[in-house]
Amino acid sequence: MTVTRPPDATRSGSGSTGHSRRPRHPRIAGVSVRLTFGAHLLAMLAVLASALILPGVAPGRPVLAYLAATVVLVIGLLASLAAHELAHAVVARRHGATGEEITIGFLGGTAHGRHEFATPRGLWRTAVAGPAASFGLAALSAGIMVGLAVLGAGQLPVVVMATLVWVNALLTVINLLPGAGLDGGRIMHALAWARSGDRARGAVVAARVGQVTGALLIAGGVAALAFGYFDGVWAGLLGLAIIAASRVQAREVLAVTAMAGLRVRDALAHPASPAVAVPGWQTVQSFLTGGPAGPGGGRSMGFSGMPVYGTVAYPLRDFDGRPAGMVTLSQLALVPPDHRDSLRLTDVATRVPDLVTTTLDEPLGQLLGRLSIRPHSPAAVHTAGHALVLDDDGVPVGVLTPADFSRSSQPGRLQGGRRAP
User: Fold this and answer.
1) Degrees (nearest 5) of the Cα angle 179, 29, 97?
2) What is the CA radius of gyration of the chain?
3) Of 240, 326, 365, 405, which one is least surrounded by beta carbons within 10 A?
4) What is the spatial distance between Cα 345 and Cα 26, in angstroms, rounded to a whole number?
5) Of these residues, 85, 116, 252, 362, which one is catalytic?
6) Could you state, in chain order, the average pLDDT of each consecutive group of 10 residues for the chain (421 residues)?
7) Would residue 100 show up in a list of annotated catalytic residues for this protein?
8) 32 with 160, same domain?
9) Which domain holds residue 42?
10) Contact predicate 382/402, CB 8 Å
């Protein structure tokens, strides 16, 4: 399952920051590739597995040979994940989708799948590109494996290439399953969209097919366990994940349809003004006890710890007025009282690179499709479902919370003509 983060152009209306402090990452085919902590953890697990398995599979080799094989395996694993996502990004860009960054995590890519396409053709071509790239890498690895075996290179290189064949074949097969969040689910969405002419109806059909797919996987897993094959538990877990994602997709379609015609400025709880941003250099204690004004229009929090107007999340700014992150009441509550004088708001806040950002004129439905359901850092857990609102100059002007989205969707749900199919 994948989640999109905004591209790096503040004036494009897509909701990015262009934040100057964002670290630089390698670029391939014009696309930035970022490895998250999950990707590094996956690499470490691959190193551990190689150290435990390779000496038993191909014994009697020098230590340097095992080290070289491990390096090839780790690089090949990460390259396989990146190639899958790059194929998505390149094809999506050819069909008018924005986005110049892909993110590789523990479960694969987390930066494709939420592109906006004008036609179902762009959707299905982008969805097919990833599995096609993985299949091509599996075929290439298989060819190299056969060549090494014919040349008598030894068992260790053959095992390494066989592992890469298995990894890419697994990426191809799993991603082609017609489940929500998977490439097969997006292909099903495109086909249903093309047949009905309705994007929302296509998404609902894909979600229903995903639930059926998940149920079949669970049934297959249970049957495998009944016959003594413990590996069936993985099919069951995958089925449960697909069913959960399909239900989320169906609810998202209903919410997006209910917000048709609304933009971010329509959902802001307070009038947008650069003054709403809190100075990030302010200490936690100063903010809680009446320091510089918070987002309550010139008001600040009192000793009770409750903000006026029910505000639960605050945008932060630096000395230049640029966004410095977002802090929530839950993050402030975790700060011990004896540390509130020494810690600044930016020390406990979620950083800008880990936030979903938007502009005042972005459609609410489009923003909802970009909101992260898989936080990229521990701090981002507190701001999941939130969006930092920036003006045309990249200055923070407010925060959208899950409550704002829920409030904005109610009028549309009360009108039968704006309900999703």
Assistant:
1) 50
2) 24
3) 240
4) 31
5) 85
6) 38 38 62 80 90 87 90 92 89 75 73 67 90 95 92 88 94 90 89 87 87 92 90 88 83 71 75 66 84 42 42 83 86 88 89 85 77 61 82 83 74 47 43
7) no
8) yes
9) 27-176
10) no
